[in-house]
């Protein structure tokens, strides 16, 4: 019984996370404008999700404890691309994407880097 309830909670969390930003993405696409989206806040959110996901992977936590974060990161990257697309230059997103991808590897070059990133 407990295992079934835990499984239901895990899958419902994944479902909610998968649908969390869909209304925002669809509103941006329907309006064909990124007005109202804040690039700094989106980047901050992406950085937080990325650091947390990398921390969980680095220390070998079970995937079910962090499986929603790749979904959230994907949705944020879609919003990031929407911001640049509707502002007229998708190529400006390249440095941001490059920093996000490279930070995935930089965070675990030394153990102290990932631990420092998770400090309050």
Write the layout of secondary structure elements.
Elements: H1 2-20, H2 22-31, H3 39-58, H4 68-86, H5 94-106, H6 111-117
Helix pairs in contact: 1-4, 2-4, 3-4, 3-5
Outline of this structure?
The chain is mostly helical and 120 residues long. It has helices spanning 2-20, 22-31, 39-58, 68-86, 94-106, 111-117.
> What's the end-to-end separation, in Å?
37 Å
Q: Helical content, roughly?
A: over 70%
Structural class: mainly alpha
Total number of distinct structural domains: 1
Number of helices: 6
Q: What general outline do the C-alpha atoms trace?
A: flat
Integer average pLDDT: 89
The unreliable regions are: none
Main sheet makeup:
none
Radius of gyration: 16 Å
The total strand number stands at: 0
Approximate strand percentage: under 5%
Report the order of strands and helices. Answer: HHHHHH
InterPro entries: MannP-dilichol_defect-1, PQ-loop_rpt
Subcellular location: Membrane
Keywords: Membrane, Transmembrane, Transmembrane helix
Organism: Colobus angolensis palliatus (Peters' Angolan colobus)
What does this protein look like?
This protein has 120 residues and is mainly α. The protein has helices at residues 2-20, 22-31, 39-58, 68-86, 94-106, 111-117. It has one domain. It has 6 helices and no strands. The model has no long low-confidence stretch (mean pLDDT 89). It comes from Colobus angolensis palliatus (Peters' Angolan colobus). Keywords: Membrane, Transmembrane, Transmembrane helix.
């Amino acid at each position: 019984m407990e295992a079934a309830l835990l499984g239901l909670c895990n899958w419902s969390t994944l479902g909610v996370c998968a649908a969390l930003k869909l209304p925002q993405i669809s509103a941006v696409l329907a309006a064909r404008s990124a007005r109202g989206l804040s690039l700094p806040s989106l980047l901050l959110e992406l950085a937080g999700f990325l650091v947390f996901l990398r921390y969980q992977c680095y220390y070998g936590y079970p995937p079910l404890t962090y499986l929603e974060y790749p979904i959230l990161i994907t949705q944020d990257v879609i919003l990031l691309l929407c911001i640049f697309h509707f502002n007229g230059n998708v190529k400006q997103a390249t440095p941001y994407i490059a920093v996000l991808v490279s930070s995935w590897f930089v965070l675990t070059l030394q153990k102290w880097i990932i631990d420092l990133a998770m400090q309050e």
